[in-house]
Amino acid sequence: MLNELWANVTLENYNNFNPITGKIIQVPVRYNKFFKGDVELWFKTFALRAQNIIN
């Protein structure tokens, strides 16, 4: 299981890429309970999860 994001995988780079789903500017409502509005932490958590699924 990976504990670090791949190089250049950041919220800023994601938002600058103009993703199909739009820019991430807030934590989705259903995750606010766990992340208390910390968008960076939410993004990192789910990006790491995706990386581990890929690997």
Polypeptide structure, described:
There is one protein chain. About 45% of the residues lie in helices and about 0% in strands. The chain has about 55 residues and is mainly alpha-helical. The relative contact order is 0.22.
Element layout with pairings:
Layout: H1 11-16, H2 32-35, H3 39-54
Short structural description:
This protein has 55 residues and is mostly helical. The protein has 3 helices and no strands.
Query: Quick one: biggest sheet?
Result: none
Low-confidence stretches: none
What Rg is obtained from the alpha carbons, in whole angstroms? 11 Å
Strand content: under 5%
This entry's quaternary arrangement is single chain
Shape descriptor reads globular
What is the number of helices?
A: 3
SS-based structural class?
mainly alpha
SSE pattern: HHH
State the end-to-end CA separation: 8 Å
Helix content: 40-55%
Count of extended strands: 0
Mean pLDDT: 90
Q: Which labels suit this protein?
A:
55 residues; mainly alpha; 3 helices; 47% helix; 0% strand
